[in-house]
Fold this sequence. Notes:
about 325 residues, alpha/beta, TIM Barrel, eight-stranded parallel β-barrel, two-stranded antiparallel sheet, 11 helices, 10 strands, about 40% helix
Amino acid sequence: MKVTEHIKQANGKTLFSFEILPPLKGQNIQSVFDGIDPLMEFNPPFIDVTYHREEYIYKELENGLLQKKVVRKRPGTVGICAAIQNKYNVDAVPHILCGGFTREDTENFLVDLDFLGIDNVVALRGDAVKSETYFTPEKDGNQYATDLVKQIVCLNNGKYLDEDLENKAKTDFCVGVAGYPEKHLEAPSLDSDIHFLKKKIEAGATYIVTQMFFDNQRFFNFVKKCRKAGITVPIVPGLKPIATKKQLNLIPHRFNVDIPDDLIMEVVKCKDNKAVRQVGIEWCTAQSKELIAEGIPVLHYYSMGKADNIKMIAKEIF
Length: 318
C-alpha cells in the first residue's frame, strides 16, 4: 500500500514510522531485524530504508603509488526492503539517489522494486562524496531530485528509456521527497528551498518527509510557508533523539540544524552519554506530543538501527 493511502486510511490518527540504514558489509540480515523487532509493537505501516552511495578510498601500492578504489560500505537496500515486507508484512520504503546512478541504473533499480511489489520510494539527490566540494551527478545521471521524480513518474506512465520496448508495463510508485525546515545546507534561503521543493511536488511527488529538527516551531513555520506556497501534500516530521554529547557539534555541522539552547545546556550538564540519552528521550517525547496535538499525519523517527530510545519514546506516545 502507498504511504499516502496509509495516511488517508488513518482518518486523522497519527501513525508511527521509522528509518533504518543497511548494516555494514559483512553483517547479516539479523542485525537489521534486531533493530526492527522491538518497534513492531507500535504497528508501523511502513519502514524507510536508506541507500548509501559509493565511496572512494585510496590504497597504497608497493611502488608507493595510490590506487583509487570504489567501495560500497552499506549495500543491500533492495534486499532489506524485500526481507522486511516478507517478514513483517509492512511496506518498505527504499531511498533512491541521483548520486552514483545513471538514468539506466535508476530505471533498473525501479524495475527490481516493482518486481518485488515495492510501490513506495523516497527520491533524493544525495550528498557529494567526500572527494567532491559540490555534488556531481553521474554521466547521464539525474542532477536534481526533481529530475529523479520525473523519471519515476515517467515509468509510472509506462515511458522507459528505451522507446522501442514493446508491451511496456506501467509501474505505480508513490514518491516521497525530502523537506528541510531549516533549509538545505546548500540553499541560499528557506524561501528558495521551498520554491524548489514545490517543483518536486509539481513533478509528481505526493508527500514530504522532513530532515530532523529539535525546535517544533521551525517545523510549524516550515509547514505554514509550504502551504502559503501552494504545497498541499502531507508533510511528515522527522525526529531524532540526541544520544551523545558529540552530536551537539556533529548534527549542526552535518545537517544545518540548530539545537535549542535549553537542550544544549541540559546535555552539557550530563555526566555521561547514558544521561544524555535520557535527556534526548525526554526532549523528543515532548516534541512528539506537541506535534500530535497539532494533528500531524505521521511521526517518523530516525532510528538508524538503534531501537531502545525510540521504543521508550513510542511507549509514551502510541
